[in-house]
Amino acid sequence: MRRLVIRLLGVGLIVTGLALGGLxxxxxxxxxxxxxxxxxxxRRDLGQPSADSAADRPQxxxxxxxxxxxxxxxxxFGPGFAPVVVEGVSSGDLRKGPxxxxxxxxxxxxxNFAVAGHRTGWxxxxxxxxxxRKGDALEVEREGRAxxxxxxxxxxxxPSDVAVVAPVPGRPHARPEKARIxxxxxxxxxxxxxxxHRFVVWGELDTP
Length: 208
Prior knowledge:
This protein is α+β, with helices and mostly antiparallel strands. The protein is built from 3 helices and 8 strands. It has helices spanning 2-22, 29-46, 91-94, and strands spanning 68-73, 84-87, 99-100, 111-116, 137-142, 145-157, 179-186, 198-205. Strand 5 (137-142) and strand 6 (145-157) form a beta hairpin.
């Protein structure tokens, strides 16, 4: 079963790479306007946090593909950076915002909360991902709960390196012992004008 999950995640990573690379050159007002409208709609879907405790609120059903999943904040990028993360990593999902890899852990859960996003075009939510440094905070809010991860490392990888989204990144058959986060986007454009590689940020849940 674990091999099947890793295989499916690997296929998802490669498909996401195609989506990211294939749309990397699309960066016009129409695309960015569509992204902004999608984000506004997603924020309405998430609604405003309730004053009640998270335990007292009814749990929402799991989001479907392209639906609002969580909010990502990165203090290094300033208070205005707070994209809504959607469920799914298809090209259609990523046009709305960063996408959560189905089958990976949720925020705060033991395992790997893996998210992909565009670096150019469609709002370019992950444009500044290479600016992140070890120790930077990555804050994720879902269902009224906030989780803070700390960046541990970054790396440029091949699209075929499917182990980056494994429950224990780089060790596809290992059993996860802690909560991790992985953010994926395109690396810099290569000599041939394409975005053939992926830039990956890893982090671990910041626990008291």
